[in-house]
Design goal:
signal, 3 domains, 305 residues, 55% helix, rotamase, elongated, two-stranded antiparallel ribbon, isomerase, Chitinase A, domain 3
């Protein structure tokens, strides 16, 4: 019976219920059944007049600008609504919000001290968000991000890395026999595919790709980095896994990440530092007095690990 009712409600007003259900953390079955998660809808091709009225509630207009703002505010909830239903879902939410807000005012709920405290907090949050957008986010330019990337890259000393192949066998005698085949001109990759006990690399001719120091067992690593490119170990290298014949394919300095590869992460660094500096400046220029003795003595909160 419950699932049948949920299905009926979804068919009646699926998009709006999906958004409101998520907002209120209620009716999860309806929210899930409304529509699968999807990517945000594409922006309309033609420009839209933000002042255009799309609906009225008791004579008060709801405009395109209202739809846009609400769409941004409920973007996470809207991701669970089918793209072609999102615009109507937002309108339904705004209509319900206006109706409930009007009813609350009629009952005098906006006059209570608790509501005024909530309103002050919401106003402060909205102003904080607008300040962050205007004074922090927009201050982080592409030039600032590129400059930070260049500064960070300049601090990095590229590590040496080696590209190696290996053949792993169980006994020293097996390893010595393979080395003799290599000495006679045997193909390393072919022998690795035929004889290596390392299932991961054997099918790739023993290829291990590039690695830096500290990534492999010490005995293996020491032997690999000691080889000149094109050379293989003349004696078997023993590790806890067995006996290895190692060939150095190539040596190089580890490539540094390009700007395009890490620009998003670098921008977050610049954004964080700009935010911290901005808040520190505001605190320095303002008088903040913590009256509560326990809170005054308490250390600053640390982010959860």
């Amino acid at each position: 019976m419950k699932s049948r009712v949920a299905t009926s409600l979804t068919a009646l007003r699926g998009p709006a219920l999906a958004v409101l259900g998520l907002m209120a953390l209620a009716a999860p079955a309806v929210a899930q059944d409304a529509a699968p998660a999807a990517a945000p809808a594409a922006a309309p091709a033609a420009p839209v007049d933000p002042k255009a009225v799309v609906a009225t509630v008791n004579g008060k207009p709801i405009t395109e600008a209202d739809l846009t703002l609400a769409g941004e505010d409920f973007s996470e909830e809207l991701a669970k609504v089918a793209p072609d239903q999102r615009r109507k879902a937002i309108l339904d939410v705004l209509i319900d919000l206006r109706l409930m807000a009007g009813a609350a005012e009629k009952d005098g709920l906006d006059k209570s001290e608790e509501f005024q405290r909530r309103l002050d907090l919401l106003r402060a949050r909205a102003l904080r968000n607008e300040f962050f957008r205007a004074k922090v986010d927009l201050a982080v330019t592409d030039e600032a991000v590129k400059k930070r990337y260049e500064a960070e890259i300049a601090k990095i000393v590229p590590e040496e890395e080696v590209h190696a192949q290996h053949i792993l066998v169980e006994t020293e005698d097996e390893a010595k026999a393979i080395i003799k085949e290599l000495d006679k001109g045997g193909d390393f990759a072919k022998l690795a595919a035929e004889k290596s006990k390392d299932p991961g690399s054997a099918k790739m001719g023993g290829d291990l790709g590039f690695f830096t120091k500290g990534k492999m067992i010490k005995e293996f690593e020491d032997a690999a980095f000691a080889l000149e490119p094109g050379k293989y170990t003349e004696k078997p290298v023993k590790t806890q896994y067995g006996f290895h014949i190692i060939k150095s394919v190539e040596k190089r300095k580890q490539p540094l990440p390009t700007y395009d590869q890490v620009k998003d992460q670098v921008r977050q660094l610049v954004l964080r530092d700009t935010f911290v500096d901005t808040v520190a400046g505001l605190r320095k220029d303002s008088k903040v007095d913590i009256v509560d003795p326990a809170l005054k003595a308490a250390p600053d909160a640390q982010p959860a690990q």
